[in-house]
Automatic annotation (TrEMBL):
The keyword Nucleotidyltransferase does not apply. Keywords: Membrane, Signal, Transmembrane, Transmembrane helix. The chain crosses the membrane at residues 104-127. This is PA2779 family protein. The keyword Signal applies. Pfam families: DUF6627. It comes from the Bacteria. InterPro entries: PA2779-like (IPR046735), UCP029543 (IPR016924). It comes from Halomonas tibetensis. Residues 1-25 form the signal peptide.
Length: 131
């Protein structure tokens, strides 16, 4: 048994050294960027913010108010998906800070403001009075 260990030990050491050297020396493909840990965490956080917004917009009372205001629900979903991570975080924080009774009106106001700003910037065409 000791003879097997004496043969396998150097082989294992050489294999480990060679495998670590080849990984460290492997070139990075051109055009592929490394993603930092912070960027990966921010991406997850941005997705969580969008999910919180979708949860609020999925409520029946919010949907009813949006339809009553003449807002297309598919357009709202597309706008939320198009938000940057910073905008999604800001909107999610604003929606969570609203009091319980005013959450519907506040949510509608936040959605309206976002729709209005994107319409003024010319990214969408929802409100005709912005022309």
């Amino acid at each position: 048994m000791k003879k097997i260990y004496r043969i396998l030990s150097p082989l294992m050491i050489v294999a480990l050294v060679l495998s670590s050297v080849s990984v460290a020396a492997a070139p990075i493909a051109p055009g592929s960027d490394l993603i930092t840990t912070q960027a990966a965490l921010n991406a997850e956080h941005g997705q969580a913010d969008r999910e919180r917004i979708h949860e609020i917009l999925a409520r029946d009372d919010v949907r009813d108010q949006l339809i009553e205001q003449g807002v297309d629900l598919a357009e709202v979903e597309a706008r939320v998906a198009a938000l940057s991570d910073a905008e999604a975080a800001q909107m999610a924080d604003q929606l969570e800070q609203l009091p319980a009774g005013a959450s519907v009106i506040g949510a509608l106001f936040a959605v309206f403001v976002i729709l209005l700003v994107t319409d003024i910037l010319g990214l969408t065409n929802v409100f005709p009075f912005t022309r």
